[in-house]
Design a protein that fits this description.
heterodimer; A: 332 residues; alpha/beta; 10-stranded mixed sheet; two-stranded antiparallel sheet; 26% helix; 21% strand; elongated; disordered N terminus; B: 436 residues; alpha+beta; 9-stranded mixed sheet; 8-stranded mixed sheet; 19 strands
Amino acid sequence: MTDATAVTDATAGVAGVAANGDPASPVRPLIAVGLRFVDQRPAVNPLTGAVTRDPAGAAFAPADGAALEHALRIAAAWSGTVLAVTVGPAVADEALRPVAALGVRVLRVAAVEPAPAGPDRGYLAELAADERALAARLVAAIRTVGEPALVLCGDRSSDRGTGALPALLAHELGAAQALGLVDLRIGGDPPLLLAERRLDGGRRERLVVPRPAVCSVEAAGVRLRRAPLPATLRAARAAVEVLEVPLATGGVAAPVVPEIGSARAYRPRPRVIAPPVGTARDRLRELTGVLDRQEPPTVVQPDSAAGAADALLGYLSRAGYLQPDQTWPDQT
Amino acid sequence: MPDADRVDAVVVGAGPAGAAAALELARAGRSVVLLERGPFPGSKNVYGGVVYGRVLDAVLPNWWDEVPVERWVVRRSTMVMTPTQALSIDFRSEAWGSAPYNGMTTYRADFDRWLAGKAVDAGATLVTSTVATGLLRDEGGRVIGVRTDRADGELRADVVIACDGVNSFLAKEAGLLPRAEAKHYTLGVKEVLALPREVIDERFGVHGDQGVDIEMLGCTAGIPGGGFLYTNAETVSVGVVLSVTHLAEAKVRPEQIVADLKAHPAIFPYLRGATVKEYAAHLIPEGGYGAMPRLYADGLLIAGDAAGMTLAAGIWLEGVNFAIGSGLAAGRTAAAALAAGDPSAARLSAYPADLHRSFVLADHKRLRKAPEVILSERMQQRYPGLIADLMEGMFTVTNPEPKPGMAALLRRAAKRNGVSLRDLAADGLKLGRVFR
């Protein structure tokens, strides 16, 4: 894995790297886009915990749309092909069809569907799998089509993603990574893959990205194009290619699903509190001070400010807040 | 799957009318594309009423077993109001709470998607996020398809069914809606308020999936229209329908009228503690039979709100069932014309004839005078006060004075509200004729 920041000073030789992203290569370079399927309107049964997917809420994050648009533009420049991959349930097909209408090959890695009566072990195993396992599954799916020259992702999903997936994808592929980009384009002579990302203080960093690489982009600068009507009609009823990829793939161990014994409410150990000392009457007296000697309020009307200060000091001395012989700077 | 650029029929708008039309065409074995401008059917919808599904019995047997219902309406209440008084006529039937049911509250985003799904299951192709921007015509002026806002967006079809809602651009382009007169439209404004299910059950006197529909007269600050309140599973919808022209003259914000309605002493107890989830407003075609456009042209049919198929007849306030009924008829007519290979205007003229045989235009024609009477100045501004004053007089105990006679109370209430007994008799006669 190489970080793209290492090639910030444009290495002109990058374009000649013998990867399948080379425009001179007879093989059409493959540009893969990882799309994070998000169900924005899931219904959760409050009794059983069963989740019902809602096709109307099936969507990809705006950043994923930007990644797809970048992929289409770069594919046009490289004469490459675009592959969109997602891991999701069958309801994700509704969101993939408009992507297919853009001339993109779509592939869905089947996610385990929760059982109607509540979570089962397969579903829990999928939940327990971390993003490295997800990256391994995505890479396995992409490699069923070919070795990618470039993998693009949105920099964040709309369901609280960790943002770690692109780096893990780069690790799995042994590719360079350039993450959190605001721009990605082919430019220069010879043509290079140029990226731009934000730095602190409003500055920008421009990168030359070698290939193969994994890039994640922000939802900025580009908007996903709309598919033509004929392609939309063709895609409306087209079947989506589905791939079964096991959770333990590419050297990633199967996730450990925690065994849940009995489910019961949290009951903390009781805290021992010592009983109060004395009788109840004593306790009440202590709390309320009802029989203690009380000094009634006194109204003093001294003639001057100095007299008022003396009256206050006298009171504080009598009450024990001041030593009787304590002296003050202005009294010395 | 249809050809990429030519199909038998295009239905524009995947609301109830469009979905029903596409369903009929697909079942007749025709290639049909259902265009929807929103990301899914129902996503652009605003609706504030009860859906009566009896019209679906013939096409979707036992539809009630799968329809996305919020509550089945078992209580129907009509409320006549002044700012400080309210008279309710409340009817309840347990029969409405079991199959085959009568009316239901539903979220149209769910209902429309369900109905469009039936059309898709039957073979229609649904294309969302696509706006039909115009009609395609041949040299003779016959409609031969639609133009959309997508690239390569021309879609040719033998028949186009425009179900693109109130203020239909396609019907206007076809010359079927030459003038959109503001007096034929009302503005529906509603809020959806969240309340716990058990609170709704308790306040409205229902349980389980039983629901309530309250229609109101006299709650619109003198602007011709009415109010409504109905229960969903865990929300209530409250709002008003206002004459567009009178609202403009009154220079009152519609949301202010809704706020006043929510604060009315007869309504506030239902809504206490509720939180606003949604606010929406939309035009409603309430011109009735006399304001309906021509319903067909060469290669074109119009249905649903685009054709003004909303029945606003005071005690009957219905729209979705008329949209579905007109959509089904349009689909049937188009399928028959396609089978005959003749989508000409002469052939498509069977459509209004079919509607006249069904409830869709039969009800509209019979109640064609209703909008005029219901939205009249006396009905809207004087009779609510007259009725409320009459009731207050009847039920106010005046001891030690003896009880006044009913005739005296009526005269007093009529005088207080500026209604002559001659007007009262004339309007009674008019109402009798309208609803005979």
